[in-house]
Amino acid sequence: MSKDKIKKKKEKESKGGLKKIFNKNTFLSITLAGMLVLVMIYVFVYMDYTQKTEDLTASNEELKKVVDELQQYSDNIEEYKEEIEGMRQQIEQVVAEYPADAREEDIVMLAVELQERNVIGYDAINMEEREGTYSIPGDLVKAAAIEGLDEELVFAQKHAVYVNTTNYDNLKSIIEQVYLSDNRIGIDNIAYAKDEENGTLEGNIDIYFYSLAGTDKEYASPDIAAYLSGTSDLFKSDKINAKNIPLEMEGAEGMEGGEVIEGDGAEGNEETVE
User: Fold this and answer.
1) How far from each other are the two terminal CA atoms of the chain, in whole angstroms?
2) What is the Cα gyration radius of the chain?
3) How would DSSP label each residue in 129-150?
4) Taking a C-beta distance cutoff of 8 angstroms, is the pair 173, 180 a contact?
5) DSSP codes, 50-114
6) Which 3 state secondary structure label does DSSP give 222?
7) Most exposed residue of 33, 126, 236, 262, measured as fewest CB within 10 angstroms of its CB?
8) DSSP letter (8 states) at residue 215
9) CA distance readout (Å), 42 to 33, 47, 121, 202
10) What percent of the chain is helix, strand and coil (3-state, nearest 5)?
11) β 260-261/200-213 pair status
12) Which of 96, 117, 120, 263 is nearest to 182 (CA)?
């Protein structure tokens, strides 16, 4: 074989080998590029859509709960309206029971009313300043949308102590009259001891006068004109004393010597009428 033929054959074989190597490298490059593209699609597209799908599913579940809750409200709207109206009436009823204020004249006039129906002599009437016990913020009051209530409500109490002398029968009548009073009041403490020499009860009744500020009510002062013109001695110092009380109060049954009737006490008085 001539040298030229051998040379051509080698060149041909050489070109064939390079072509195979080139085709192999190209295939590997394309394969790697394709895999890289697939990885990028998975990371940046598929996973992103998967996360969005999960978020959307969770959001839909939350929205479904809200829709179900709103549907329940819608189904029971008439029942809710009836309950709200019932609560509004209860609030109005409670508010109506409280006066706008409780003052010293209310305390004195209660003593006069008790004395008009019972044999009782007062040694002193002690009073304390009014104090707030509970308040409802104005924004909550306005939210209730009740006529006449549009500002802060403040429940208050005023403490009074009636130091007096009476007997057992009259004491029962006095307690009954206190509870039937038109005032919004409550008995805090009752403490009495029997005077063995005269057969009377000496002690005190502690009472709280309650009021509510913040409504459209105005304070109504008690009518004390009759007292000013017709009663000159509230304490009956010229009629009730240690010597003649037993004559007016004979028959105080059920009381042993030195017996004390008492309830839960509250101490401390600031203002005294004597």
Assistant:
1) 154
2) 47
3) --EEEEEE-HHHHHHHTBTTB-
4) no
5) HHHHHHHHHHHHHHHHHHHHHHHHHHTHHHHHHHHHHHHHHHHHHHHHS-S---HHHHHHHHHHH
6) coil
7) 33
8) S
9) 14, 6, 98, 96
10) 50, 20, 30
11) unpaired
12) 96
State which amino acid sits at residue 13. E
Specify the pTM: 0.60
pLDDT digits (tens, 9 = 90+) for 194-239: 998 888 999 999 999 999 999 988 898 888 765 444 455 555 554 4
pLDDT digits (tens, 9 = 90+) for 7-17: 555 555 555 55
CA distance 216 to 151: 10
CB 161 within 8 A of CB 122: no
190: pLDDT strictly greater than 60: yes
Q: Which amino acid is at 261?
A: I
Q: Are the beta carbons of 98 and 156 closer than 8 angstroms?
A: no
The C-alpha angle 24, 29, 31, rounded to 5 degrees, equals 95
Do the beta carbons of residue 101 and residue 211 sit within 8 Å? yes
The two structure tokens encoding residue 134: 């509970």
Which among 151, 153, 117, 119 has a CA at the least distance from the CA of 135?
Answer: 153
pLDDT in tens, 61-98: 888 888 988 888 889 999 988 988 898 888 888 888 99
The secondary element (H helix, E strand) that includes residue 253 is none
Nearest-10 Cα torsion for 242, 246, 249, 252: 110
Cβ-Cβ contacts under 8 Å for 124 (sequence gap 6 or more): 161, 163, 272, 273, 274
Q: Cα separation of 240 and 126, whole Å?
A: 20
Where do we find the tokens 């054959």? Answer: 9
Tokens of 221: 């002062």
User: What's phi and psi for 222, nearest 5 deg?
Assistant: -65, 150
**Closest CA relative to residue 184, chosen from 94, 253, 250, 108:** 94
